[in-house]
From TrEMBL:
UniProt-recorded name of the protein: Aminotransferase
Organism per entry: Candidatus Methanofastidiosum methylothiophilum
Pfam family membership, one: Aminotran_1_2
Listed GO biological process terms: amino acid metabolic process
Family: Belongs to the class-I pyridoxal-phosphate-dependent aminotransferase family.
Keyword list, A-Z: Aminotransferase, Pyridoxal phosphate, Transferase
Listed InterPro entries: Ala_Aminotransferase (IPR051926), Aminotransferase_I/II_large (IPR004839), NHTrfase_class1_PyrdxlP-BS (IPR004838), PyrdxlP-dep_Trfase (IPR015424), PyrdxlP-dep_Trfase_major (IPR015421), PyrdxlP-dep_Trfase_small (IPR015422), TyrNic_aminoTrfase (IPR005958)
Length: 397
């Protein structure tokens, strides 16, 4: 029998959002009904993909549009996205937009083209764990910079600056932030752009939730500079309610000095063949005709976010800041001597009350600890049920 060891590279990967599901499945196999508030998939609740998008991919499939797409993406879709970006964030050209299989593939591509062992990437703490996982996967060191809970999780710019070394390659921004729901202020972004210029860094700006803003305060750093190289990530997963279609994009701003890295990414895109062809047709329809669905969704999510914020703050031992955008809320738990850490808290709550959350340390062991992440995607009635169970759980301990 052949005996092989797992690669050191793959053994470093962890992903808290999905890892907690494995334990929930064990409970489900015993007959438990689990109320799942762990994953940002609107379609698990009372949201539906817009009908014109669905019709578009059905028609594409029926007319045999089922072959390989261009490696860089459907040309019509790339043109539409370039126009969208130019309108919202500053002039960008067709050649500067490529289509990916979701933002996650974009992270893999850019880190694969830029990082060598020992390099460093500045990532928000707390922040989406894919950035940490793939930086480590490519032999680099993810360095978390602090975001300040008492200031609605805004970025501690001085802390970020203090963590720059000769090995730092880029700064990752997630705006609106997952998991905290923070929306970064323009002044903060201006300061970070100045730092990027001073230290010759590029910026990754993850804007997958850009339209899900509850106070219309979203600002893209790409709209604020013509000097700093910025790689913007976005897509249709959240805004247009199609997470399973896996259609994202990368938009390259001010990358003239980084043309070799850009070409490296293009080589990776060609090597992996192409993103899904018919789903890109659905994305074209999303950007053309589905704006009203976005407005309706954001209105519904704003109401639910306000309910979650109010209700969670009523529970003894729980406190939370108010989300300004996105799909998530990130409350703090007074663990005291009841639980050794936030992971034990989440797993015990799941076992006792059958509600699945994600432990905050899964988003950053330093700045995310003693917290948990919940979506506010469910109806108010479902959230009331979940948070009542949480209140009972806290009082029992």
């Amino acid at each position: 029998m052949i005996s092989l060891n797992v690669s050191e590279r793959s053994s470093t990967i962890s992903y808290a959002i999905r890892d907690v599901v494995e334990y929930a499945r064990k409970l489900e196999s015993k007959g438990d009904q689990i109320l799942k508030l762990n994953i940002g998939d609107p379609l698990k609740f009372d949201f539906n993909t817009p009908e014109p998008m669905v019709d578009a991919i059905i028609n594409a499939a029926k007319t045999n549009f089922n072959g390989y797409e261009d490696s860089l993406g459907n040309p019509e879709l790339r043109k539409i996205i370039a126009e969208r970006e130019s309108k919202n964030n500053g002039k960008i050209y067709f050649e500067d937009v490529v289509i990916t299989s979701g933002v996650t593939e974009g992270v893999q591509l850019v880190f694969g083209a830029t990082l060598e062992p020992g390099d460093e990437v500045l990532v928000p703490g707390p922040g989406y764990p894919t950035y940490t996982s793939y930086a480590t996967f490519f032999g680099a060191n993810p360095i978390t910079y602090r975001t300040i809970e008492s200031e609605n999780w805004n970025i501690d710019v001085e802390d970020l600056k203090s963590k720059i070394t000769n090995n730092t390659k880029c700064i990752v921004l997630i705006n609106p932030n997952n998991p905290t729901g923070a929306m970064y202020k323009k002044k903060c972004l201006e300061e970070i752009l100045d730092i990027a210029i001073d230290y010759d860094l590029f910026i990754i700006s993850d804007e997958i939730y850009d339209r899900i803003s509850f106070n219309n305060s979203f600002v893209s750093p790409a709209s604020m500079t013509d000097e700093v190289p910025i790689l913007t990530f976005n897509g249709i997963s959240k805004i247009y309610l199609a997470p399973g279609w896996r259609v994202g994009y990368m938009a390259f701003y001010n990358w003239d000095t980084l043309f070799e890295i850009k070409e490296g990414i293009m080589k990776e895109l060609r090597a992996r063949i192409a993103a899904n062809s018919i789903c890109q047709v659905g994305a074209i329809e999303a950007y053309k005709s589905c704006e009203k669905y976005v407005v309706e969704m954001v209105s519904k999510l704003k109401e639910r976010s306000e309910f979650a914020y109010k209700r969670l703050n009523e529970i003894p031992g729980i406190s939370t800041t108010k989300p300004m955008g996105g799909l998530y809320i990130f409350p703090k738990v007074e663990l005291e001597k009841r639980w050794k850490d936030d992971k034990e808290f989440v797993y015990e709550f799941l076992r006792m009350k059958k509600v699945l959350l994600v432990h905050g340390s899964g988003f950053c062991p330093v700045y995310g600890k003693d917290h948990f992440r919940s979506v506010f995607l469910p109806t108010i009635e479902v959230m009331e049920d979940a948070f009542t169970r949480l209140e009972e759980f806290m009082k029992a301990k």
